[in-house]
Design a protein that fits this description.
The chain is α/β, with parallel strands linked by helices and about 425 residues long. It has 17 helices and 6 strands. Helix content is about 65%, strand content about 5%.
Length: about 425
């Protein structure tokens, strides 16, 4: 047993150092977090640039005689309403000449609810502009209708006011900020990180086995170590490489988001967030919900355990598939039994998110093939009893032991089998070989 563990350790160390020293690993480890931050910040940055670059002037042909001035008062830097005392034909000609980006026709029947406002332009200007124009017209028409119904200024003020609800969490010492949305996002991220990590690093395992088998290197290796020791060492070595990469990514992304939040706060209006105009960028970021919430250390610990357990479980199956084929494209048919239980948890994410404590959610999160994804989602958004976490982890470990035994039997026969690609029935028969 001592010699067996020593050989497994040698294979783990060889697989780990050979991969973490490669240029591809170093570049991926450094560039993926940069790409993540860029992708996360790109929509906000592009939206800001679009607002800055989109400035439209709309002529208003007000046939009601009561809506032109209120619309002009509702103008912004990006969208300006300009009442004109011209006929629609003259304004249309001005739009064609480029004097205006479009014109808005407000018929007499608009205020009594029988008519509709119409916007004319050479180009639509995008969905955002259309929504803004419709929103401004709707607000102004509503106000004029209320005034026509003798609504007082107090009633108008009540209708225009918002009744927002601030949520707080009760703690042992007072209360604290509620991070429900943030923890939901963290749960989603953890679930998908485990899914993609298991899929990507499992492919690494399968590809490595196929390369060794196709180059006949494995025939030399198995003369010194047993196939099971080679399988276990390869799975653990690539798993350690993946865990190293995940830790580095988590540290870089967390640091990047923490530094980006105050930077994004410079583009926000403090008044709209209910904070003083001279408030610090950190205060503005906190008011806008851009701060990174504290992630419990226990949650991170469970994440590592379920990540390792999920990877070991699926990586052993990927290795078994790789040992049965000589080229990666030949593995597609054999991958179906491996990928199906990996994809199924994604179909239950929405249900578990809405009802994390429901009986169905609890049962699904205890299934070993589902628990790495669903249990982490539940743990992030609700308080999962420790016994459920331990039971799920125990079942995951027991299933890994059973699967690594079956995979080892397939691996033992497959790595030395050449010729045609075996069917699922033939692979299942390999399990019974002694």
């Amino acid at each position: 047993m001592k010699t067996s563990l020593h050989k497994i350790w040698l294979i783990v160390r060889s697989e780990y150092w050979r991969r973490v020293r490669s240029t591809a690993f170093i570049l991926a480890t450094l560039l993926v977090p940069v790409g993540f931050v860029v992708v996360a910040a790109a929509p906000a940055a592009l939206g800001y640039l679009a607002d800055q670059g989109s400035r439209r002037t709309v002529a208003v042909v007000d046939q009601t005689g009561r809506l032109g001035d209120p619309l002009a008062a509702a103008s912004t830097e990006q969208l300006t309403f300009r009442p004109v005392a011209q006929s629609p034909d003259s304004v249309r000609a001005a739009v064609r000449a480029g004097a205006y980006d479009g014109y808005l026709l407000l018929p007499d029947s608009l205020l009594d609810g029988t008519g509709r406002a119409t916007y004319y332009s050479m180009q639509s200007g995008g969905l955002t502009d259309q929504i803004q124009i419709e929103d401004r017209v709707g607000t102004v028409v509503q106000q004029q209708r209320l005034r026509a119904a003798d609504a007082t200024a107090a009633v108008l003020s009540i209708l225009e006011s918002d009744a927002s609800v601030r949520t707080r969490t009760i703690k042992e010492a007072g209360t604290g900020a509620d991070h429900t949305f943030a923890y939901t996002a963290i749960g989603y991220v953890m679930a998908f990180v485990i899914y993609f990590a298991v899929f990507v690093y499992g492919q690494y395992v399968m590809q490595g086995v196929i390369e060794e088998k196709s180059s006949r290197v494995v025939e030399v290796i198995v003369s010194s170590v047993r196939p099971f020791e080679l399988l276990m060492g390869k799975v653990l070595g690539i798993g350690a490489m993946g865990l190293t990469q995940m830790v580095v990514w988590a540290a870089l992304v967390t640091g990047g988001l923490a530094g980006a939040a105050p930077l994004l706060a410079f583009f926000l209006d403090p008044a709209s967030l209910g904070v003083p105009a001279d408030a610090s960028s950190a205060a503005v970021a906190e008011a806008a919900g851009l701060t990174v919430p504290p992630v419990p250390y226990a949650l991170l610990g469970w994440f590592v355990l379920f990540f390792v357990g999920g990877f070991l479980l699926y990586a052993s199956l990927f290795a078994a598939v790789g040992s049965a084929v000589e080229q990666q494209q030949d593995a597609q048919n054999l991958l179906l039994p491996v990928l199906t239980p990996l994809i199924l948890p994604l179909l239950f994410l929405a249900f578990v998110l809405e009802s994390p404590d429901a009986t169905v959610s609890v049962v699904l999160s205890l299934i070993p093939f589902f628990s790495p994804i669903l249990m982490m989602l539940r743990a992030a958004i609700t308080t999962v009893p420790v016994w459920q976490m331990l039971v799920a982890l125990g079942l995951l470990g027991a299933t890994f032991v059973a699967m690594i035994g079956l995979a080892g039997r397939i691996y033992r026969v497959g790595i030395l089998s050449y010729g045609k690609t075996p069917s699922l029935r033939e692979v299942a028969r390999w399990i019974t070989y002694r």
